[in-house]
Amino acid sequence: MAIIKIKKIKIRNLRNVRNGELTLAVNFASLMTANVVGVYGQNGSGKTTIVDAFSLLKTIISGWIAEVKLPSQDKRLIMAGEKTASLVFEFLVDNQFGTFFVNYSVTLQEDEKRLFIIAERLTYREDEKGKRSKVLVSVADEDVQIRKSSLRDMSEKIRIKTLVIQQLARKQYMSFVFHKDLKTLLQEKLSELEMELLRNIAVDFNRDLHVINNQNIAPLFEERIMPFSIHLEKTRGSIPYDLKGPALLPENAFNVLCEVIEQSNQVLSTIIPGLTIKIHVITEQLLDNGEKGIRFEFLSKRGERELPLRTESEGILKIIAVLSVLIAVYNNPTACVVIDELDSGVFEYLLGELLTVIDEGGKGQLIFTSHNLRVLEVLAIKNLWFTTTNENDRYMQLKGIKEVNNARDVYLRAIQLGGQDEEVYKETKTFKIKRAFRKAGVQHD
Q: Is the pTM of this model over 0.85?
């Protein structure tokens, strides 16, 4: 089994980040241990942009197996006043051929409909001193390079096929490098090792990458639709469950949810003592497409008391919704889970306990944003990143921390007194806030 982990992320001109870079504390010697990374900072300072970057990566590499378009223009992902945004991801890959650094960079633009790719490049190098990077696939405008061959080096037939796929990818708002129609052509040009590295990113890493942002989780709070994030041996993805009443699902989807509940119950009662989820099947019926469907309801069970799952707090529902992927992070070294506002609605002590358990005994990667400072007391400083007020250098790690220091105290001191390489907080004045509240409360005729 190949193990793939994110080592570095670079962001340029994405949302409110003009320049930002995170390097994760992972190396080839630590591939089988957890990498739990927290991103902290004040509102609107670039935390969610990290999640957006991973969401874009997920969309791009998914083109290897399905037609998935880049986000629509109304998402406003490119920084205001800029024409392009770019992302760079560096991976560590351990497969049957050895250990490798794989680097993927992409430059994005937008038209009147949605984002599209104007340049991308996939390179790799062996994990040995003195080894240089080799290009797998590179494209910018009509300049295409596959391994050592540029368009002018290709036969007329291959050149035309390459240009057709490039134009198709642009028309479909998809990646050229990870386009499913490029596979056959690449198999002719790349070595077995190089095709395996491409597959490691496009299939293996993609399968185990879960991005949970506010857009995913919002239906839980706004529409009472619970998006179960799923990471099972044969199934990945998300299945919505309507909390407002009995749900009706195709039998296959129902069986997957049952497996998730069985998996989650093993952990749930240790996180929230006494709580398990019970599946109450109401009836079987045919769906409009002729398939067999199951009408059912999830019940919250505490001792002898059973109530509809919707009666639980939003914090508990959120934990249940993401529990399957957190279990994956604990057990699967290739699992990479990215969660925006992990602390939202979750009791801070419980959050600290969960992250401590995953950090100490897990195998995968968990990257999350949070406002809750309790986590700063339980994670090592090497796994904590903080946003700054400088859009040209958005992410940094705190300096001047000794083993006896509490990262929470150092961060609060940085907010109040500074002393770091970049300012981490735009200062607010309580007297100005009080005055503004008084002024806002004055009635005007």
A: yes
